[in-house]
Amino acid sequence: MSLQGLAYDFTVQLLNTTITEAIAVLFGVASVILANRNNMLLYPTGIISTGLYLYIMSSVGLYAETLLNGYYLVMSIYGWIRWVKNREDGKASAISYCTAKDWIMVGAIVILGFAILYTTLSKYTDSTVPFADALVSAFAWAGMWLLAKHKIENWILLNVSNFIAIPLLVYKGIPMTALLTVILFTVAMFGYFRWRKLYHLQFAQ
20-37: per-residue pLDDT in tens? Predict the structure, then answer.
């Protein structure tokens, strides 16, 4: 197919975007911008977006991403509770770098997550994209775990997931979500450097 044909198909898909997807995208953008600013409201906006994406992803057959959004939902609730508890205890939700223990956990999440998801999708579902779906989700699971712990490297893991997800989402016919992922990719790059700056500012206070 020509580039013009691809652009036409993408435009048609974009114009046919559902209200549900549009709302999910709106709250998704808000959540990642708030995360970039290390603002607590990233969690409630994320809860709304991921709740809607549970339905959207299952409806297009991206089962690993459906499970991923369920995980996002749980981790958003966990992160919100953790933030509130730290504030009540008079503790700042400090940003930090990953320790060796954190990296071991990240490796375990990515490798085991991919293996389990790929095997399950290949053998027990009608997924047409088990490899890509599992890979996107495995890296995102690790990234979200690091985000909940306020680790700077969360942005790197999430962007590996975003990079793989963009063409996958276009292929599955949800272009507005693909555009959201492009935005997430861009914001995550700025987020990484912003969090590094915030990390050093913590010690200057």
Answer: 988 998 998 899 888 878
**If you write DSSP's letter for every residue of 9-42 in order, what string do you get?**
HHHHHHHT--HHHHHHHHHHHHHHHHHHTT-TTH
Q: What is the pLDDT of residues 115-140, one digit of tens each?
A: 999 999 999 999 999 999 999 999 99
Instruction: Give how many domains the chain has, as a whole number.
Output: 1
**47-72: per-residue pLDDT in tens?**
999 999 999 999 989 998 899 899 88
Count CB atoms within 10 A of the CB of residue 85: 11
In whole angstroms, how far apart are CA 46 and each of 11, 24, 181? 27, 9, 14
Helical residues (DSSP H) of the chain, grouped into ranges: 3-15, 19-36, 42-59, 63-88, 100-124, 130-148, 154-171, 175-202
* Domain encompassing residue 150: 3-202
